[in-house]
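Task card 7
Instruction: Convert sequence to structure tokens.
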Amino acid sequence: MIRKRNIKFLLIRLAAFFGFINFNIYLAAQAPLDREYKAVAENRANKIVVRLGITDSSAFYKVRDIIAEQYIDLKNIHENRDAQIKAIKETNGISNQSNPESKIQLVQQNADNQLEKLHKAYMSKLSQHLSAAQVEKVKDGMTYGVLPITYKGYLEMIPRLSKEEKNSFMMPW
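Output:
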């Protein structure tokens, strides 16, 4: 009895130890990728902030960091969503689980909810440091100018839209 308990205890400790080692190896492998993407995000954000005409260097870097953080958070949500969907599809191929589409929709809905919360918080942070016109420039910079072009296209395709309908096309950032 005591021997079985000791063996169980030893096996649990070994599993925890190897799990800890594997996790640290995973983190070590991810760290350079995270640093690399952070540099990319800061570079993108820098290009946007330069166009805003911010003269105070501390405000410049604060806004740059907010935008870079948004890029990183967006990437994390999208990667997590994509990994979950991939796992559902792979599991479905192996086990023929029932209704994988509903599980995928649930994952997508969860990601959409996270994105909505993220965007609201992001707009709030930006609004604390920027004027409304500068916030619009940030949106334009992050979407590579697609938003105003798409909006203009909708208005040209459907010119009879009411003001309320026109406003509904704009994303609630």
